[in-house]
UniProtKB/TrEMBL annotation:
The entry's keywords: ANK repeat, Cytoplasm, Repeat, SH3 domain
Gene Ontology annotations of biological process type: signal transduction; vesicle-mediated transport
Record's function text: Induces bone resorption, acting probably through a signaling cascade which results in the secretion of factor(s) enhancing osteoclast formation and activity.
A Pfam cross-reference name: SH3_1
Domain of life, source organism: Eukaryota
Keyword Cytoplasm included in the entry's annotation: yes
Gene3D superfamilies: Ankyrin repeat-containing domain (1.25.40.20), SH3 Domains (2.30.30.40)
Principal subcellular localisation of the protein: cytoplasm
Name used for this protein in its record: Osteoclast-stimulating factor 1
Amino acid sequence: MAKPVPPKIAPKPGKVTVLRALYGYTAQQEDELTFTEGDILYLVDQTDANWWRARCGMKVGLIPSNYVEMKMDAIENPLHDAARRGNIDFLKECLTNGVSATGLDASGNSPLHWSAKGGHLECVQEIIRAAMKTYRNPKHFINAQNKLGDTPLTAQPAKTTCQSSISFWNTEQIPQSKIKTNSVQ
């Protein structure tokens, strides 16, 4: 009697497996993904050894596994890293590819904590915009405390434009007409 297939383990939240296309591929079927050599893809599912499900930009589809290489095994908390460094392009790419704007790292910091602490205003604004798509009232994620009891507002070293921006978002529920939804294409 054959052993039953073990259940698939869900990926750790905030962990992203990154692939680089070794060759270009043109989709042959509706459920496949077209990509070019050098494209960065994000692994969604690798249940089938030959055909993996991946995301490239705003599209998701099957890709031949032998056309890609693991760029890195995985990036732990990529949005936190982008926020900490002020890397707005990578931050937007992470958000576009489904990385949670409100996830916490091992010390309980959200990406908002890191971008505010670094004084990265553009990152602060982008994270708040992304989180607003999930939570209409920003107070609970703006006021979220890390393990030391710091909020994004208090985690920063001094009064900055970031602090003013966070305070603005924290005052009242913002009407949807005031929220800019910048999407990366």
